[in-house]
TrEMBL record:
Phylogenetic placement of the source organism: Bacteria, Pseudomonadati, Verrucomicrobiota, Verrucomicrobiia, Verrucomicrobiales
Signal peptide stretch: 1-19
Protein name per its UniProtKB record: Sulfatase
Keyword Signal: yes
InterPro entries given in the database record: Alkaline_phosphatase_core_sf (IPR017850), GAG_Ulvan_Degrading_Sulfatases (IPR052701), PA14/GLEYA (IPR037524), PA14_dom (IPR011658), Sulfatase_N (IPR000917)
Length: 719
């Protein structure tokens, strides 16, 4: 099996944005280049694609029209959709929370998350670039409020080594372990933590005893977010810094717990939720309401009282409470006169759940995704790699740049957000990121959108539920090892994988979101490409082995003779990390061909260098690669083979030392077929022509040695 091209085969098809069915969006006058935005990234827990009211408008864009008998309103989110863009084909990284959050924060898909995949709840994400570090280093004040779940402690039974304060966030207020997200009055029995990096002596503190047990989690975290924004804007008068707020609500995850009081009237600076200090405690004003204790977990929003069962009333009320909080936050931005220059992203971590939750004090039964068609016109729920488990609600609003009323059908995925926010903040996209900036799509220039990668892998026992509106062949489908790749805009999906050569089902999810018509028999040429993509764009995950790990990654075919050496481009500048040069807006200062990996070419002292081409693997087998740079401060590098991470000598790298492709402290070889394999080497440094980069290998019959120049070539046709 050989790849047909050494370009990544996970490229998605370009699909235009629509202002109305069939009409490309027109950019408006307010899309002129604006200053770096403030950013609020809102992540909710287990809210299905079909739980977002605006996704049900203009149904013919969805590829399938269905009758939704029961519906509830999300007026603030609907307004946000009208005032910005709907991403109707946005995918989570995985159909469950921990791996989804890990990939979101790290900007990598699940084939590259090194610690958190599958169901490794509470394990600490690796020390790499995150949304927090990138935005902090771009000059932003950063805060994470709400649920974290990927920092250590909890079910990892280890120390907290990947907490928000250790991954780029100057401020944190919330819950650390994922199970605490089931407890919507968290201080009743769970720990609440705070970290203030702006304090003279920052401490990671458990403040559970300072929070009344009447504090409902959505209210608590929304009020804390409002107060943090107010405080940050005061300090910004001196610092001039914009802010990045990651606001992760536990709702509407089970348990199905509701507030004790109506949402306070008004909103913004003077109304709505407010932060209150009282009798040695600090909390949201609703926690101090006279009826807060008596009516705890009883309030149903009046619009939702009509539903015939308690579960439906509670699920819809939990989401409506988040909706009210979004309206309150936007009101605050307007009061502070920063609404125009603030980007708000709203999305969910995975498809809808059918769980009761772990809080024994507030049991109300399991959510039933069928009642509201929380999975939309698709099949699948949380833990399924069918569309209903992976496709999530997604809205983006930024009045200064994003034209109103757009609907995008362009596929995108969680790892694209790190690239997007880096682009908005005016800093390079890290080379480790698997994402592409979505700014062209968001700002009405979908024709300029770079194609991205859609990939996922997830392993869990169990089966797809047998809901009556699911297709017969989907009911009871074995989950097990699941894997998704997109090739030529089509989705490849395989479930219950026990053999790496198992065929993919192939679906046109743009026009067939229920995945009713398997195109595999009519597109046999795609099988080899999808199987190759499934191997060449991921690395083995050592804590949990898969059937893919030791399969040989196929070589590529190059039409015509390849020319000796690697192409190089040199960029002038000082870089905070190794960038993805493919997404750089500046042009290279010079370019040429080098016989082997070298960064010594003449040119600027402060430089970034990209080398691209092919490396010839002499024999089938397992290989380990090694890299070292010069010892000058700031020297870093990153290497990809095909689309996979090969060597990471970036964020934690000590210049001058040697690192390997093991990507950790355990042996993790790369399994390769003999032949040509595309390689991309990125380097940054400040030593000019004295810069140095050495690349070595060892493999079958090859002792550890520098890779000879004869192994490198490039496609002179530029393909």
């Amino acid at each position: 099996m050989k790849l047909l091209s050494f370009l990544t085969v996970l490229l998605t098809a370009a699909v235009p944005c629509m202002a109305a069915p069939g009409k490309p969006v027109k950019t408006s006058a307010n899309t002129e280049k604006a200053a770096r935005p403030n950013v609020i990234f809102i992540l909710v827990d287990d809210m299905g694609w079909g739980d977002l009211d605006s996704n049900w408008s203009q149904q013919k864009l969805n590829g399938r029209t269905v009758d939704r008998k029961n519906e509830f309103k999300t007026p603030a989110l609907s307004a946000m959709a009208r005032e910005g863009i709907q991403l109707r084909r946005h995918y989570s990284a995985a159909p469950v929370c921990a791996p989804a959050r890990a990939s979101l924060l790290l900007g990598v898909h699940q084939g590259h998350s090194r610690v958190v995949r599958n169901n490794r709840f509470d394990y600490p994400i690796e020390d790499s670039h995150t949304l927090g570090t990138v935005m902090r280093d771009a000059g932003y004040d950063t805060a994470a409020i709400g649920k974290w779940g990927v920092g250590g402690g909890g079910e990892s039974h280890g120390p907290v080594t990947g907490g928000p304060h250790q991954r780029g966030f100057n401020y944190f207020y919330g819950i650390l372990d994922h199970l605490a997200g089931h407890f919507h009055y968290p201080s009743e029995s769970r720990d609440i933590f705070e970290y203030n990096g702006y304090a003279s002596n920052p401490e990671w503190k458990n403040i559970k005893d300072q929070v009344p047990q009447t504090a409902y989690s959505t209210d608590l975290f929304a009020a804390r977010a409002k107060q943090w924004i107010v405080d940050q804007r005061k300090s910004a008068r001196k610092t001039g810094k914009p802010f990045f707020l990651y606001l992760a609500f536990p709702a509407p995850h089970g348990n199905l717990v509701v507030p004790g009081t109506p949402y306070p009237a008004g909103g913004g600076l003077k109304g709505g939720l407010q932060w209150v200090k009282k009798n040695g405690t600090e909390s949201v004003n609703t926690a101090f309401d006279a009826k807060a204790e008596k009516d705890k977990d009883t309030y149903i929003h009046p619009d939702n009282a009509r539903f015939p069962n308690e579960v439906a009333k509670r699920h819809s009320t939990m989401i409506r409470r988040v909706d009210d909080a979004v309206a309150d936050l936007i009101h605050l931005l307007k009061d502070l006169k920063i609404d125009n220059d603030t980007m708000i992203v709203f999305t969910s971590d995975n498809g809808p759940h059918n769980e009761g939750g772990a809080d024994p004090k507030h049991r109300h039964g399991a959510q039933n995704p069928q009642f509201f068609k929380s999975y939309g016109m698709m099949d699948g729920i949380k833990r399924d790699c069918w569309e209903g488990g992976m496709r999530v609600p997604a809205l983006v609003r930024w009045p200064a740049r994003i034209p109103k009323g757009q609907i995008s059908l362009q596929p995108s995925q969680f790892h694209d957000w790190l690239a997007t926010l880096a682009d908005a903040a005016g800093v390079p996209v890290p080379a480790r990121s698997d994402g592409v900036s979505l700014l062209p799509t968001l700002t009405g220039h979908a024709d300029q959108q770079k194609p991205g990668i859609i990939y996922s892998e997830y392993n869990v026992a169990g089966k797809t539920p047998g809901y009556k509106d699911f297709l017969g062949e989907h009911k009871g489908a074995e989950r097990g090892q699941q894997q998704i790749v997109f090739v030529d805009g089509l989705k490849g999906l395989r479930m219950g994988v026990k053999d790496a050569d198992k065929d993919f089902m192939i679906f046109d999810t743009l026009n067939d979101p229920q995945e009713s018509k398997d195109l595999a028999s009519s597109r046999p040429e795609l099988q080899a490409r999808m199987k190759a993509a499934a191997l060449s764009n991921r690395r083995a995950f050592l804590p949990a082995k898969t059937v893919f790990d030791t399969e040989l990654v196929p070589a590529v075919e190059v039409k015509g003779a390849a020319s000796p050496g690697l192409k190089w481009s040199v960029y002038e500048g000082e870089f905070p990390w190794v960038p993805d040069f493919r997404q750089m807006k500046k042009q290279p200062a010079a370019h040429g061909v080098a016989p082997s990996p070298s960064v010594k070419m003449n040119g600027p002292r402060k430089r970034g260098v990209e080398l691209t081409g092919l490396v010839k693997i002499p024999a089938d087998g397992e290989y380990t690669f090694y890299l070292s740079t010069d010892a000058n401060k700031g020297s870093k590098a990153f290497v990809r083979l095909h689309g996979m991470e090969l060597i990471d000598a970036d964020k934690t790298y000590e210049p001058g030392t040697e690192v390997s492709s093991d990507l950790g402290d355990r042996k993790n070889p790369v399994y390769l077929k003999a032949g040509l394999h595309p390689i991309r080497i990125s380097y940054v440094g400040n030593a000019g022509p004295a810069s140095k980069l050495v690349l070595k290998w060892e493999g079958p019959g090859l002792p550890k040695q520098e890779i000879p120049a004869s192994a490198f070539s490039h496609d002179s046709a530029g393909k």
